[in-house]
Amino acid sequence: MNLEQLGLIGVFLAGAIPWFEAIAVIPAGIIFGLDPMWVVVSGVTGNAITIFLFAYFSSSLRNWFIERRRRSGKSGENPKFAKAQRAFEKYGVYGLAVIGPLVIGTQFAAAISVAAGVKPLKASLVITFATLFWATLIAVAMTLLGLQLDLPGTP
């Protein structure tokens, strides 16, 4: 396994970490001399896996939290969720998809969308495509500007 393959595995794993985001690791991968196309593919793929996981498990997790709060004598909804709900009402799933990678994180944008009533598949796809858009835009801009290091062991 060469240095570029290890780097791409690192980009994939880092892209899967919530709040680390594909759009944060893609510039790092490109700066370190990895192939921009493969950096985008690796970072977005890692990120997409966790977007889908958050979307599909968020509704059951939300129900569990609400029930737990009720058992402890609190109202069903957490005040932080109410704030997230207002953000969804203001921007919708498409707005969250666009600002999610920059502001709240793609995984949390997916979870908020599903909790607000969007189907998990739709939320996941919309947010993943928005992440792919941002990642591609960043990679193209960095490539055009020539922002990368020439490291030994990379092509």
The ordered string of helix (H) and strand (E) elements is HHHHHH
Structural class: mainly alpha
Count of DSSP-assigned helices:
6
Given as residue ranges, the uncertain stretches (5+ residues, pLDDT < 50) are none
| Range of strand content | under 5%
Helix proportion range: over 70%
Mean pLDDT: 86
Total number of distinct structural domains? 1
Euclidean distance between termini CA atoms: 14 Å
Main sheet overview: none
> Could you tell me the radius of gyration in angstroms?
18 Å
Tell me the number of strands. Answer: 0
Shape: elongated
Summary, kept brief:
This protein is mostly helical. It has helices at residues 3-15, 22-31, 36-71, 79-99, 106-115, 120-145.
Structure description:
- The two termini are 14 Å apart.
- The chain has helices at residues 3-15, 22-31, 36-71, 79-99, 106-115, 120-145.
- The chain is built from six helices and no strands.
- Helix content is 75%, strand content 0%.
- By secondary structure, the chain is mostly helical.
Brief descriptors of the model:
155 residues; mainly alpha; 6 helices; 75% helix
SSE map:
Blueprint: H1 3-15, H2 22-31, H3 36-71, H4 79-99, H5 106-115, H6 120-145
Helix pairs in contact: 1-2, 1-3, 2-3, 2-6, 3-5, 3-6, 4-5, 4-6, 5-6
